Amino acid sequence: MFILCILVCFLASTVGAVCGIGGGIIIKPVLEAFQIMEIPALQFLSGCAVWSMSAYSVIKSRVSNETQAEPGSRTMLALGAAMGGAAGRKLFAIALQTSENSGQVGRIQAGGLLAVTVGTLLYAFCKEKVRTFHIVNSGACVLIGGILGMLSAFLGIGGGPVNLVVLFFFFSMSTKAAVESSLYIIFFSQSISLFLTVLAGVGSVDFLTLILMCSGGIAGGICGRSLNKKMSDETVDRLFIALMVILIGVCVYNLRD
Predict the structure, then answer these.
(1) Which residues are within 8 A (CB) of 90 and not within 5 positions of it... i.e. 6 or more apart?
(2) Which of 113, 111, 93, 87 is nearest to 189 (CA)?
(3) pTM for the full model?
């Protein structure tokens, strides 16, 4: 189990750092398919791995002063995402309390993730034909960030492809600027979500698994950041589309009875 966890976290975080999707959208559904732990524990551990990867990426960008994103909009989006993350975590807790078992919640999440992934894939194919906007209003940025954070926290995906679609559509960002901003948003939303989870009680979580998954997340962040610098926007876009196709298959598998 340990080898599987660290391998999945490393590969998912590498791709997540390249594409700006965080990695949780891969880690959670893939490990869920192997049924190696309960959904609440898996969601927490996946969140920790994603937080580790995004923390490295954000700190590295700040230290090296390498940024392609607009600081103002990015900060307001992150603020909204942090608040939305708290709301999404609350929705997840309510779903657990009102469902017969965690497996039922997992299927709800898989269905939601499937819808998001299919929508994202369709947008990726059509984005050149879609008119985009360039929002600068702080209130609108906070609202958009809040919706992203709530959706990500509830689905347990850290950020996922919906971040990129929103950044493309509402802010007319280039692929690499959207990747950087997405990781920034993920870092803040995951920070609040994990903090509230720890306060409420994590439950049964293996400490060694936690360390290994976080280590895999950081290693993937280092590798993914390096690869992203060497790739063109077009290559990143193609990798993103291929990943969405694979994830749709994983989500369909997780929806089985």
Answers:
(1) none
(2) 87
(3) 0.80
How many Å apart are CA 107 and CA 187, to the nearest integer?
A: 26
Round to whole Å and give the CA distance between 170 and 164.
Answer: 10
Q: C-alpha distances in angstroms, 41 versus 141, 148, 152, 182, 231? A: 32, 22, 16, 24, 35
Distances (CA, A) of 113 to 8, 42, 58, 104: 18, 16, 25, 14
How confident is the model at residue 185, as a pLDDT?
A: 84
Q: How far apart are CA 2 and CA 254, in angstroms?
A: 21
Element (H, E) at 97: helix 71-98
Q: Give the pLDDT confidence score for residue 115 in this predicted structure.
A: 87
CA distance 183 to 170: 17
Q: pLDDT tens across 5-40, in order?
A: 889 999 988 988 888 776 777 888 888 888 888 878
The contacts of residue 89 (CB under 8 Å, 6+ apart) are 153, 154, 193, 196, 197
Please list the ranges in the chain whose pLDDT falls under 50.
none
pLDDT value of residue 141: 92
The residues near 99 (Cβ < 8 Å, ≥ 6 apart) are 105, 108
Structure tokens at 17: 């750092």
Tokens linked to 175 = 């692929």
Q: What is the signed CA dihedral for 160, 163, 166, 170, rounded to 10 degrees? A: -170
Q: How many angstroms separate the first and last alpha carbons of the chain?
A: 23
pLDDT tens-digit readout, 154-173: 887 766 678 888 888 998 88
